[in-house]
Queue: 3 jobs
Job 1
Amino acid sequence: MQTLNLTDDILEKEHDYLVQSYQRPSFLLVRGQGMTLYDAQDKPYADWVAGIAVNALGYGDPGVAQAIQRQLETGLIHTSNLYHTIPHARLAEALVARSFADRVFFCNSGTEANEGALKFARRVAYDSGQTDKTEIVAFSGAFHGRTFGSLSITPKDKYQKPFKPLLQGVTIVDYNDIEGVRQAITDKTCAVIFETIQGEGGIHCATPEFAREVRCLCDMHGALLIFDEVQCGMGRTGHLWAHEALGVTPDMMTIAKPLAAGLPIGAILVTQAVADHIHLGDHGTTFGGGPLVTSVALHVLERVSQPDFLAHVRDVGDYLLERLSEINSPLIRQVRGRGLMVGLELTIDVSPIVKQGYERSLLLVNAGTNVIRLVPPLIARHSDVDFLIERLSLLLEQAHV
Ligand SMILES: *Cc1c(COP(=O)(O)O)cnc(C)c1O
């Protein structure tokens, strides 16, 4: 009774005091362990959402707790970017050592990372005396965030329409349409940006040919290529970076979601050629790269980039794809993805299935209308896949009658 009252009480407060921009299910999460979340009635939920591809190491991870604890013992949570501290330098070094990049700028979220990358692209052109080189090419189905710059390259009416006017000079091309890019890109293009695997847009992978051709076109027109790996980066595909499977490197890459195990962080990774044009005072942030978040991120990066860890993600990801393709349901249109970033496209709106999942102790999230997006903690095991398949099969059977 006590806990029911707690749930009711909290839900009522949320209803009364929060801006009503989210619709949430009517249970209250109070703790988590591994792949599992528990509500106030101690009902478990197998978590195939992971805080939207954030909680790569799951819940209650002792290594994460230790990284937090060790940093707290120094007393430094935040100092601002006015001063030198240890963890952000070490994290930047570790990111550079494991990527195409030469330098890193830290911020606090995915949208901020993209915002910064767009600013850097304009700054590079401006610094080179090309003041009219301001245009951006982005893609259908993209999701880059909700602040004005990122929103401007997120071509979804529902997100954009109430907030116009947006950034000028954005051209949207169909994802994976090489010819479209060839027509859209000009010498006024300062950047082309895409997700190497689209998350929110429904788990669509960029093809290697597309990535190669866009790289060439960018070089021809002096435009910078930006990869948004906010969702697909940091081990999710079984590669540390999703673009490793494409054989193409960008000029900038944005990352965020899983980087600090759930603490807010974002980063823009850039080549030296980009960094050469970013000067003192050009961009800044109060919180970005703080000692606590970067300590934790260094721990996450060291864990996630281990070959054994990445092999585990590939192994469980392959098993997931295999088990999903065995489900015999006329509602399934396609199963696709890489590693533990998988989409199950149905012939129907998936939101009732997500809702009924709650009844069956399963947390699922959609990607668009027809796709169930499976982005669990990267510590998921075969037995977690088995549980998912059992419950999902039931849900699909229910939905079909
Ligand atoms: C979530 C996401 C973002 C935005 O990240 P926020 O931290 O919510 O601002 C940007 N790009 C991609 C690919 C994402 O999945």
Job 2
Amino acid sequence: MTKNTPTKRPLRLRTRQVRAGLSRTGFSETNEAIFMNSGYVYGSAQEAEESFDGTRDRMVYSRFKNPTVAVFEERLAALEGAEACRATASGMAAVHAALVCQLKSGDRVVAPRALFGSCTWIIGDLLPRFGIEVEFIDGTDTAQWERALSRPTQVVFLETPSNPTLEIVDLARVAELTHKAGGRLVVDNVFATPIFQAPLSLGADVVVYSATKHIDGQGRCLGGAVLGSAEFCNDVLGPYLRHTGPALSPFNAWVLLKGLETLDLRVECHAANAFTVARFLESRPEVARVLYPGLESHPQHTLAKSQMCGYGGVVAFEMKGGKDAAYKLLDGLEVIDISNNLGDSKSLVCHPWTTTHQRLTPEQKAEQGITEGLLRLSVGLEDADDLVDDLRLALES
Ligand SMILES: *Cc1c(COP(=O)(O)O)cnc(C)c1O
């Protein structure tokens, strides 16, 4: 393999998303090769020994490292402005590894209540089984952060914007409080993507992604990633991944790598379409409220504006008339699909109360602002006017 380093000049984001990490084989192929192999061979017994004791830096086994996965990791790190990146088989594997690799019995974790359902399960159900103390708070309330982080805390985990109610957490303030409490701040940046928000630059220590969402962005495969300092990725996370094995398939890494090349083009289009759709929904009498961080009516619009440079592709809105009205709208749509995925080129809508957040108790749903009339719309790359027409006809039917 020859490393393709065309220049020592610092390259701009668009160039990095197309070229960072690129390395070519002796065939000089243009496009990145797929290394669909689990193992590697050694020229001698001595070489094998040196590969294992670390004196030789080379591929040993694809649970540890794979050339195609390594290109994906390097490119995503270059986009995020992180020292290092480790890829995982799914977003949940990334969340799980980022938390468990650094926690032990007796530690304390603080998180907002507004989280993706499986993140709530890991933090609220799994971690306490191993003697880890967990406190959930209202992530939009600075006083609650100050109180919760007035005690030593090892990890703070949060999503901003959150799924599905698009709550915004003040990253710089929470990072400062987390560090005072002696902990690391882990941010699930799925809704914002590396294009619209850079948590590390605001003080976060670790960023996690479900690459299944906008990074693939075309509904093809699962993947995840954890980014942070080289010290965290190599010494804390590295051994955990190496020995527990949530490795990303080289084929999926290649698909995600191709996704990265068009990431900014796609998410800018998602966001522009989402803005159009959010404004349209806000104008409709059938809709009780619209949640989109870009709208001035969003309760934390000012904060969103200060820490994001775009507002993403997800819009949540509440139908007057509760579940019946929400179901009628879903069943009346002809272009927008009913699906629980998000960040896809196709517009997808779901009813969180009965799908993604079904397992929560009615009290937990109320705390998170998930009502029976709430719908979460992941706005795709179609023509925005067709999406508005589809919603208008379904609202009027
Ligand atoms: C989808 C999602 C995940 C989980 O990712 P998978 O790739 O489905 O495992 C985690 N966090 C957020 C915010 C998500 O939207």
Job 3
Amino acid sequence: MKNFKDLQAQYEFDVYPKRDIVLTHGKNSTVWDDRGNEYIDCIAGHGVANIGHCNPAVIAAIEAQAKKLITCPGTFYNDVRAQLMEKLVSISPESVNKVFLCNSGAESIEAAIKFARFSQQKHKIICANRGFHGRTLGALSATFQPAYKKDFEPLVPGFEFVPFNRFEKMLNAIDEETAAIMLELVQGEGGVHSGSNDFFQNVQALCRERDILLIIDEVQTGFCRTGKMFACEHFNLLPDILCVAKGIAGGLPMGAVLCSDKVQPPTGRHGSTFGGNPLACAAAIAAIDFMLEHDLALMSSEKGAHLRSRLESHDISRIREIRQMGLMIGIELKEKVKPHLMTLMKNGVLALPAGATVLRLLPPLTISYEELDTVADKIIAGLYGVGLYQK
Ligand SMILES: *Cc1c(COP(=O)(O)O)cnc(C)c1O
């Protein structure tokens, strides 16, 4: 058998810290490595595979569309693209009614920044401490974590940071040059922290009063992850710009920016070669239909509550706090999380960090209750530090 790990390591430009396995197959919430080991996947491509790996509905849509048309520039109309745009607007907060399609979360943030600046003819954007919006230079400028930005400066000017959930600080940061406020509703990379309802209501009112655009980044929280189609629904928020990506197309690369009437389009001055390509559009239509048909938002909400109660049924002194909304779960430890992630992987569960001490779970929303129980048991066993593993 070929050693793909060494092969890739020989050629790959070393950007990603690596885990020591070669993943080759996936089905629903299970993935396999090249040695045939099986894992319950609570990473799911960082919250991409919401409807499971290799979802049959998405496979069928991709197969059919691949025979029809794979690429089509944004300067032409396209049948599947039109249908996807209609569908996206139909499931989104009622404030947004126009769609720009791109290929990733960071691209949706880049577009949002440009749309806000163009539309408002102002440059300042207020973001939150611990917020994460992506790795490209504009999105990185909107991202808080200094470690991600160090050595890549100078970044894009005009971004200011205020503590999440502190409305007075936000109020103080606003001035005549403020074009927009950009927030996640549950900060994913930042440690799975939800904003408070009061904070969001105040921010939304401030935006309306001062003619500032409210940009909500639902790249991670979107598509049923938090127990609603979009986390905006938990807080009755009506954004002017909604950025989505990760779970949108069953694993194919795609992002989208949804805009309200307040946002003016810079016609002829923004675009993307691959944005809205028909193959990804067909996959996204199938993915969203699957979410609606199976009421994945409700499933996510119920399964998240189940996993949480299972975890909380043990009083584990190493856990500081469990934060959970749907199947977006952060278990904050009183110690470093990395050794626990490695132990979990050895024992057949893939989980993520969110910072140094938070164990983050973003499983497919189609995961079974039995698998959730296994995940909980293995986490608990690992945190007790006893040899309870069954594998
Ligand atoms: C992942 C993520 C992004 C960046 O998305 P990419 O597709 O990796 O560029 C932006 N915002 C949030 C909240 C994310 O979780």
